[in-house]
Amino acid sequence: QVQLVESGGGLVQAGGSLRLSCVASGRSFSSYAMGWFRQAPGKEREFVATISRSGDIIFYADSVKGRFTISRDNAKNTVYLQMNSLKPEDTAVYYCAALNGRPGSLARGVYDYWGQGTQVTVSS
After folding, report:
1. Is 116 left (phi over 0), alpha (psi -120 to 50) or beta?
2. Measured between alpha carbons, how far is residue 32 from residues 7, 61, 66, 76, 124 in Å?
3. What's the CA gap between 59 and 86, in Å, rounded?
4. Which of 6, 31, 49, 87 is 20 to 30 A from 94 in CA distance terms?
């Protein structure tokens, strides 16, 4: 069992930055690939970024490529999402997720564990 707790969300103006953190407890964090997803009101949860267990394989959604950076610190059981040049359309609840047995995935249905989410609101 893995428990995930996100933090770092908030209200920011367009063009600003936020860094989200997701701390894992329970079984070995380094055994899991990690992902970030987001869900805006009235929309489905969508993929944002994923990182492999060692951090050597990373993928981003086209909508965030060049603006967001996913990273992890296995010694701290933490995965991060640095978000720069934020846009109003980035407004959503952001979730981290853990995946066992694969280097990462864009598909939300394959992830084994989810956090409770953190709200990010970008004002124009």
Report:
1. alpha
2. 19, 20, 25, 14, 36
3. 19
4. 31
Amino acid code (one letter) for 48: V
Q: How many residues does the chain have?
A: 124
What is the CB neighbour count within 10 angstroms for residue 42? Answer: 5
Q: Residue with structure tokens 């598909």?
A: 107
Mean pLDDT of 37-64: 96
The C-alpha atoms of residue 119 and residue 71 are separated, in whole angstroms, by 20
* Cα separation, 18 vs 105, whole angstroms: 24
Q: What integer pLDDT is reported at residue 62 of this predicted model?
A: 97
Residues in contact with 94: Cβ distance below 8 Å, sequence separation at least 6, in sequence order: 6, 9, 20, 36, 37, 38, 48, 81, 117, 118, 119, 120
What pLDDT is recorded for position 109? Answer: 87
Q: For residue 27, with 0-12 CB atoms within 10 Å meaning exposed, 13-18 middle and 19 or more buried, which class applies?
A: middle
* H or E segment to which residue 21 belongs: strand 18-26
Report the first-to-last Cα separation within the chain, whole angstroms. Answer: 40
CA-based R_g, the chain, Å: 13
Mean of the per-residue pLDDT values for the chain? 95
